[in-house]
Structures are given as C-alpha cells and as structure tokens.
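We now fix the convention by which a protein and its fold are recorded. These numbers are not coordinates but entries in a learned vocabulary of local backbone shapes. A record is reproduced here so that you can trace the correspondence yourselves:
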Amino acid sequence: MELVFVYNANAGKWNALLDTLHKVVSPNTYPCSLCAITYGKIAIEPEWEKFIKTLPITPVFLHKDEFQIQYPDNKTPLPAVFNNHDSKLQLLISSQELNNLQLPELIAKLNSIL
C-alpha cells in the first residue's frame, strides 16, 4: 500500500525553476496547491518533511507528467492524493480540497485518514 501525492507540475529542474518563479511572481495563479502547501519558495517545509518521515505507509511523489505515464487512463484533476493498493488508486484528497487547505490542515486530514 502506498500514499501517492501527485503534483500539478511537471518533473525536471527547468520546470522546478519555472514553478519557483511562478510562486514568487504570481502565487495566486500558481496551479499546484500541493506544491504551494508543502514547499516554501525554494525548499520543502520542515513541518512537512518531518511528517512525511513518520508516515506508517510508503509515500510516493509524482509530478503530473510522471503520473500520466503510469496511470494514462486516470483523468482526476490535479493535484491530488491517492491511496494505491494493488495498483488501484483511490482518491483520498481532491484538487478542490487541496485548494482550501493549509499545511497543518493537510497533515491533520492525512492523520485522520490513516
């Protein structure tokens, strides 16, 4: 069983740089609330990093392009959080929900789910 976090951003250093610039210049139009919640302008939020290390199941982090390759038939709006059990994804936290959460609320929600 895995906890799959999917960012609404593409993988790669160039994309990471563009995302960082977008978060700084226009945070209100940045399309990945999961990125905005869990990462500061440059690095992972310490509270998030600590939480991830305590998870009782394996966390997996995918970018949008990686997710589309692994799950080409899944059209769930991103970002999102899934449970992956026997290669079957179950949506745990939707994009709409993530858009309304701050980091402490995300951690609390995940704790209540797990």
The two ends are 12 Å apart (CA to CA). The beta strands are 2-6, 58-62, 80-85, 88-93.
